[in-house]
Protein 1
Amino acid sequence: MLTVANLSKQFGEQSVLRDVSFSLEQGEVLAVLGRSGCGKTTLLKILAGLEMPTAGTLLLHGQDLRPVPPNERQMVYLYQEPLLFPHLTVFENVAFGLRIRNVAKAEINQQVQELLAELDLWEHAQKAPHQLSGGQRQRVSFGRALIIRPRLLLLDEPFGNLDAQTRADMQQLFLRVSRQHQITSLFVTHDSREALTVGTRFAYLDQGQLTSFASVGEFVQDARTAIRSELAFWENIQQKLE
Ligand SMILES: Nc1ncnc2c1ncn2[C@@H]1O[C@H](COP(=O)(O)OP(=O)(O)OP(=O)(O)O)[C@@H](O)[C@H]1O
């Protein structure tokens, strides 16, 4: 469905992405783990059409994406800070993408109602964004993205500003909803636990070079992901408790 081949990006002398290649099938979630400054945001921006690659090919359903403007790519880019219209209710924020596409009113009401129920937001439908918690705002932002059935969802540390419990709840919600709607996503995070929770495929990005793993086992075994050292840490604690 999505094929990225030999993608490179230079900012002046600096090589931010080097020969990045991967492919994704419908409904897969590629979890990209990487430390700050590794080039994650640049990769997502290139996919969204907000930056142009220096070299390489990008194909979505066989179509070359490079000449396609961002608003025609049918992708949604979700950041840490949910982007909501402050003057619109939760209902209207989610409905927005359908209203501008001139979908019939009854159809909009039904779809928004169903999605808000799915996202556990129905009781907040008439509130304004400033009356919501951070996790609720992020759920509205997720609803705005899902309602237009994006071909690709790009998530850039979307739960990074949330407390640990809300973050864990959001990961479960993301899993449930993306499975149900067969959403294809690229989910970048610096948290290995989050990557393991949300991913169906796994990659590691380091200084602009992407390593894709054939299995979750290979991802866990690669020393750069630091998952083995975390497991060792917890085993050590466990031994102390015994
Ligand atoms: N428009 C730009 N012009 C010049 N350099 C840039 C530009 N955008 C990004 N960079 C550089 O590219 C590198 C990667 O940036 P990027 O934003 O992709 O990192 P990141 O992996 O998302 O990091 P973080 O997790 O800290 O946001 C950085 O060294 C950054 O300074």
Protein 2
Amino acid sequence: MTTRTVEQHAQHVAELLAPLHTRPGEEIPLGEALGRALAADVHSPVDLPLFRNSQMDGYAVDAASITTVPVMLPVRGVIAAGPAEPVTHLPGTAYRIMTGAPVPPGADAIVPVEDTVTSDGEVRIEKTRSAGEFVRERGSDVRAGTLLLAAGSLLAARHIAVLAAVGLQRVSVRPRPRVAVITTGAELVDAGSALRPGQIYDSNGIALASSARANGAEVVSIARSTDDPAEFRTLLAEAVLTADVVLTSGGVSMGDFEVVKETLSPLGAQFAHVAMQPGGPQGTAVVNGVPVLNFPGNPVSTLVSFEIFARPDIRRAAGLPPTEAVEGPLAAPLTSVRGKRQFLRARRTDTGVELVAGPGSHLVAAMAWADVLVDVPADVTALDAGQLVKVIPL
Ligand SMILES: Nc1nc2c(c(=O)[nH]1)N[C@H]1C(S)=C(S)[C@@H](COP(=O)(O)OP(=O)(O)OC[C@H]3O[C@@H](n4cnc5c(N)ncnc54)[C@H](O)[C@@H]3O)O[C@H]1N2
Ligand code: MOO
């Protein structure tokens, strides 16, 4: 079998997944856009505020008429926030006005109601205000035609607020990569089933689907195959109809029932041994133009394979920022196997980066305690406590 470094295999996977990055944006309702990445710049179609309006409940006046206070002004009417025939202000008079209501042309200041005394048809203004006070000018927040949000922006509530405020109902976002998951193994059953001897619960299906979703993908199907190649072939043929990428688990090593390897090898798949632990046996194929990544079946191997090989391109396709590796000091010394890059499960604590498990790829419970993978280079065999290591956040 071919042997590859992690970088070589990652490069190969990146080439297979490259078409994900050129899919055009999709228009979706604003109400569904939370967490999505904008596919294109959005310019404001309107001015915000849309019209000149009051910042306070009070009286619309012209500042020139209230330079000396107290002063009595006749009240010509009430302007509420809401649709109404426009009115015009006459100098030396006032309109009672509510927050958000249009300020009549000619008025240039709002006197808050707290600074007034209302009497029959008149208002006593007790505090002077200068022109512009408590008036929200049209376009003072954003002008029509100017950039509201740049392509690539990850839409949080505040971004959705402004898109809604300018009246957009739909928005063009990066399409979610469509991921199909197929697990393989005669031993697998669904949680909730009674276990017969030799059976285990299928955890990789839901784990890979969750990993994909957590990184911006849409999971279009989760299927499970026994070790029967005909069944796997059928499930794969169905998966590639709707998916942009298919992830499989299991059936890629050296046993007698390696259904993924047996089915895909004749179709030109590449199976390689990657110099890493976990995640050594890896495969890739292209079926009907759809890339298929074949991860090893051990639960930790499957999840680490996703993190190292699939996550970067799935995130990029969805428009999500890359997960950057950081550095941290080791809490205790460690040893590593020469020639294999290790991705050790660990968590960050006050004392440094603490390993949570040994190297066994079946240690799925310990994986759940981890929040990082410690990336130990292939040529390193020992590290001391306190030494800085590269950690990949999970
Ligand atoms: N002679 C050799 N044996 C093995 C080698 C090797 O190089 N020579 N490599 C080992 C390594 S490393 C790994 S990793 C595994 C990979 O094996 P497969 O990808 O063929 O996976 P399976 O044999 O189907 O399963 C391995 C293990 O994981 C359990 N499993 C599988 N699928 C699931 C699932 N969906 N949910 C939960 N657990 C699952 C399965 O029961 C096995 O225990 O091969 C080693 N062997
Ligand atoms: O892929 Mo295996 O997990 O290297 O033990």
